[in-house]
Design a protein that fits this description.
Number of strands: 10
Distance between the termini: 19 Å
Largest sheet: 10 strands, mixed
Strand content: 15-25%
Number of helices: 10
Shape: globular
Order of helices and strands: EHEHEHEEHEHEHEHHHHEE
Strand order of the largest sheet: 1-8-2-7-9-10-3-6-4-5
């Protein structure tokens, strides 16, 4: 397996063969919590207006943001705290259309050229590495999506480091140093200050829980579009 490190939307579009699209703050942390809460389907849609139309057409829930702020008419922000607060009574059995400025756009871009696309965050990192290691693709592109898919961010880079260390035995990774760097950066501080409702401080806690769920998340093309599905470690 030849591993390539990529960044941002340009990196996602350049990926070939197999890609891992990483968005820790917050898209694919949210996706993992949605799937854990028992949602039936998670559909990716990069156009917020189209996502809202799908919500109304099918009676789905809509989750996501533009520039970090929940889209007007959506049911949930791009926030794991929102998902935890909603709980499985609200989410179980529902279909959710998810739109975000970095993670979702990256998955859509990678799916244009890759035969296999996975999405990742710290919550599913070890399971994701185990699934990809078993698949052993010729090429793997690990793409850290950053802020709005335009600016690199430490949480995505460090999550990529962690996943790569699991795929390459002996490659060093220091999780304490990684978390320290993440918490010291404005990417986390904008949450921790607690002065903007779209950035709740508790999101940082949920997003930095490592290896919380025992399954990876794969992107599959279905009759409804690009859909996220659990992939267990076998």
């Amino acid at each position: 397996m030849q591993i390539h490190r990529q960044q941002l939307l340009t990196g996602a579009a350049a990926a070939r063969d197999t890609a891992i699209i990483i968005d820790v703050f917050r898209a694919y942390t949210c996706s993992s919590f949605l799937l854990n809460a028992g949602v039936e389907r998670v559909i990716l849609e990069e156009d917020p207006e189209r996502a809202l139309a799908l919500k109304h057409e099918h009676g789905w829930l809509a989750l996501g943001e533009v520039n970090g702020v929940m889209v007007e008419g959506f049911d949930l922000g791009n926030s794991p705290s929102d998902i935890v607060a909603a709980g499985d009574k609200v989410l179980r059995g529902r279909t959710v259309v998810q739109r975000t400025s970095a993670g979702v756009r990256g998955a859509v871009a990678a799916a244009q050229h890759c035969s296999q696309v996975f999405v990742g965050a710290f919550t599913t990192a070890a399971a994701l590495a185990a699934v990809v290691r078993k698949l052993n693709p010729a090429e793997l592109h690990i793409v850290a999506m950053g802020w709005n898919a335009l600016e690199p961010m430490p949480e995505d880079e460090r999550c990529a480091d962690y996943i790569q260390s699991l795929l390459e035995p002996g490659r060093p990774y220091d999780h304490v140093a990684a978390v320290h760097g993440i918490l010291s950066h404005e990417s986390a501080r904008k949450f921790l200050r607690g002065d903007k409702p779209q950035f709740p401080p508790t999101d940082v806690t949920w997003c930095l829980l490592r290896d919380l769920f025992p399954w990876a998340i794969r992107v599959e093309r279905t009759e409804l579009g690009l859909e996220l599905r659990k992939t267990p470690v076998e």
